[in-house]
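Protocol step 6 of 9: fold each sequence in the batch and record its structure tokens directly after the sequence line. For illustration, a two-sequence batch is reproduced in full.

Sequence one:
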Amino acid sequence: MSMAALPVHFKQKPVVIVMGVSGSGKSTVGLALARQLGLPFLDADDFHPPANVDKMSRAIPLSDEDRWPWLAALSSGMADAADRTGGVVATCSALKRCYREYLLKQVARPLMFVFLDGDRDTLYERMKQRSDHYMPVSLLDSQLATLERPHADEPAATFSVLKSIDELISEITGSLNSAE
């Protein structure tokens, strides 16, 4: 685990985006974290317009033009949830720095990115085992090529996907508590 490079101080409850490429466990970790913190959970997959889901289902990588409306819908949903409850946990691949900067600006409150990091082989094996997701294994390499890992000047902490869900939740909540 690495602590957030740029400290995040939450006025109320945390606002968190669990990020990473497909197969990193964003939804599993995000839902568990939201339950642990007693916060609403938003899965970015639910904010994709049908055209994006169709493209990904046909193994066509999304372009920036495809992603901006999706990021706008997600950030609006996050801001609304945080307005209602004081905090929120969401998932989002947030592959590029410009996407993370956009989300920070649009959510308009202190926000921390939790980056779930893993090697290609591990992610590939995880994706092969999924049967209930529209994202095909063939898009993993395009996601890895697009990924811009968070830098030290971003409000992000990196965690290994090789850890158990219990270890991850413990480390992430510890990181959030130290950031408050």
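Sequence two, same batch, same settings:
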Amino acid sequence: MFERDLAAATFLEGVARKRWTFVTVSWPFALFAIIAGDGEIFHLRMNLEGYPAALPTGGLWDLGTDAILGADRWPKGDAAFSSVFRRDWQGATALYFPLDRVALNGHHDWPSNYPHLRWHQEKGFVQYLGEAHRLLNSRGYHGI
């Protein structure tokens, strides 16, 4: 299913539009590069265990150290942006929004409160990448 979704038009469109690209996979972890509005590249390491039935979970990753992105390179932003890209939550291993399986745990009201962020298995991990890209290209993003 993962390979099918890498070849899907929605993923390839994001690549063609320079929104993101696939870097590597070491199952169940896949690494993607997401391009922010200021041209900064952020790497998102997604845990796809149980995919596609299970939602992914993921956090920002440093390719150089092969570890969670350091605080000095973490994206900054307004309150709405910072509520998703939280370095102080779950050891920065997951984004805090309804498309992340770790964040969704304990927030059973999120799918009804945020229907546009409800997981759709048929859309796959592109749904997660798309929302991360949207945030990194929003007015709320203020750079590093």
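Proceed to step 7 once all outputs are recorded. Observation for sequence two: The mean pLDDT is 96.
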